[in-house]
Amino acid sequence: MPGRLVPLVLLLAVTACGGPPPPPAPSPSPTAPACPEGGVEIAAIGGEAATGLRVLTLEMRNCGTGTHRIAGYPDVRLLDEDGQPLEVRVEHGSAGISLIESFEAPPAEFALGPGDRATAGIVWRNTYDDTTKPPQVGVRIDIAPLAGLPRRTFTPRLGVDGGPPSTDSEATTIDLGSTGRIGLSPWRAPEGQGE
Predict the structure, then answer these.
(1) Is residue 23 in some structural domain?
(2) Sites in the chain below the pLDDT cut of 70
(3) Strand ranges (E), the chain
């Protein structure tokens, strides 16, 4: 009997001193990307294509803590696959490319508060009829969402059938052919936002 009692007492003493093992450390959770300088993010969120006419919808989201006064158009430049600017006329409105009412409406002033979003569009035609020059293809968009805010460059990506992108969406190009111009719509707030 005394031989059995010693190991039991020793086991109780070791357990009482050490306590239960600590729980495993939690695994780090993925962090959201930081809000860019200037407090706004830009992304492509939709597109349409029909008989050579193309429209790409851009979204500006206020990811900062301040409010921005919005009035006007994005400042857009198109870059080729080497990151060089394309020689493209950028016009406000649909630039005679096609009559699109939302592109022809004058800019409206509105507030873009934290978490609010606004949209603008790019319209162009994919027509190639000048074989003396290679077709122009915009691979990246260099944009200043508003005067005074920093520029940023991004690759537009869209989901299936021009819908919102997902993490594995392929890049979308702005295939101008030989037309050499794009039209821009002004920034617009969704209905009831930014009054």
Answers:
(1) no
(2) 1-33, 192-195
(3) 40-50, 53-62, 68-70, 75-79, 89-92, 110-112, 117-125, 136-138, 140-144, 152-154, 174-177, 181-184
172-194 as b/e, with b when 16 or more CB fall inside 10 Å? bbbbbbbbebbbbbbbbbeeeeb
Domain holding 91, by residue range, is 40-184
Whether 32 maps to a domain, the answer reads: no
- The answer to the question of residue 132 being in a domain is yes
Residues near 77 by Cβ (< 8 Å), separated by ≥ 6?
85, 86, 88, 90, 141, 142, 143
b/e code 150-165 from CB counts within 10 Å (16+ = b): eebeeebbbbeebeeb
* CA pair distance 173, 90, nearest whole angstrom: 16
What is the per-residue pLDDT across 111-155, written as a single tens digit (0 to 9) for each? Answer: 999 999 999 999 999 998 888 889 999 999 999 988 778 899 999
Three-class SS of residue 35?
coil
What residues contact 177, with CB distance under 8 A and at least 6 apart?
125, 126, 127, 128, 129, 135, 136
Query: How crowded is residue 77: how many other Cβ atoms within 10 Å of its Cβ?
Result: 16
Q: How many domains does the chain have?
A: 1
Please give the Cα distance from 14 to 17 (Å, whole number). 5
